[in-house]
Design goal:
alpha+beta, T-fold, 6-stranded antiparallel sheet, 6 helices
């Protein structure tokens, strides 16, 4: 998924731990093969180029159902069809060259969550052949949730999972919880049984004509954000926290998530 996953476990009895860790990373590999837009042969990328209804895995279906619902709630601030823009801007960051405006507009015209149809019985349809999906805003979180379930079932409930900076914390490792250091606000101690997702645009950017355009792309405009903020979301699910962090950073205020809180480290 274009990032690193790390697993930390605290346990008095370590028997079976290595087998469990190996199983956890195999699970991440399975999910990457389903949802990564970096792999040409992933299940996600195999959806491209067809406007017919296609059968998908239960995991991908679950993530797409949530992604489309969040896109609707946020008015497109979060949009799983952002793939054309993601590809354009990744190339721009690699080459350190600002994309031509006509290319940005052309990619933006191929992005709209309403063109993604998700139905029951695990079926999905892209309404235009030139569409492509990018689940970078939720897939990592979903993978963390799945690994957390696996560790608990195996008898290792005290864990800290890190997927590219998105965190899922299990039970406290001792009498005190986990300590997490946040770039904008410092360290927070005694954390446990919570997902933490941070989205920020101050550190990775492309400067052009005196303006810093971050790697966080607004699907509604086609351009990287320029306001240099950092948003952190706390809640029970890493997938939901992951998606909400992106939405909050882009100025959306989705309703209906009472179990989630966020802090804004805007500057």
């Amino acid at each position: 998924m274009g990032t690193e996953f790390r697993i930390t476990i605290s346990a008095a009895d370590t028997s079976g731990m290595q087998r469990t860790i190996d199983s956890a990373f195999r699970r991440v590999d399975e999910l990457e093969q389903m949802m990564s837009d970096y792999r040409a042969d992933s299940e996600l990328n195999r959806l491209r180029g067809s406007t017919k209804w296609q059968q998908i895995s239960p995991e991908l279906h679950e993530v797409l159902v949530f992604s489309r619902a969040l896109a609707k709630q946020t008015g497109g601030a979060f949009d799983p069809t952002i793939g054309p823009l993601t590809k354009l801007w990744r190339r721009a960051f690699r080459q350190q060259a600002f994309p031509a405006e006509d290319r940005i507009l052309a990619a933006r015209a191929r992005v709209h969550w309403k063109d993604l149809r998700v139905a029951k019985r695990r079926r999905v349809r892209l309404r235009r052949k030139e569409m492509s999906l990018d689940l970078g805003g939720v897939a990592k979180g979903f993978a963390l949730d799945e690994v957390g379930k696996l560790l608990r079932k195996a008898g290792f409930p005290a864990f800290l999972l890190d997927g590219g900076g998105d965190l899922l914390l299990g039970d406290a490792p001792s009498d005190e919880g986990w300590t997490v250091k946040f770039p904008a606000s410092g360290s927070v101690s005694d954390l446990y049984n919570v997902a933490i997702a941070t989205s920020g645009d101050a550190y990775r950017y492309l400067e052009w004509e005196g303006v810093r355009y971050s790697h966080i792309i607004d699907p509604r405009t086609g351009y990287g954000t320029t306001h240099q903020r950092e948003v952190t979301v706390f809640g029970p699910s890493a997938m939901v926290a992951d998606g909400l962090a992106s939405a909050y950073l882009l100025g959306s205020q989705p309703k209906g998530f009472p179990d989630y809180t966020y802090s804004d480290g805007g500057r």
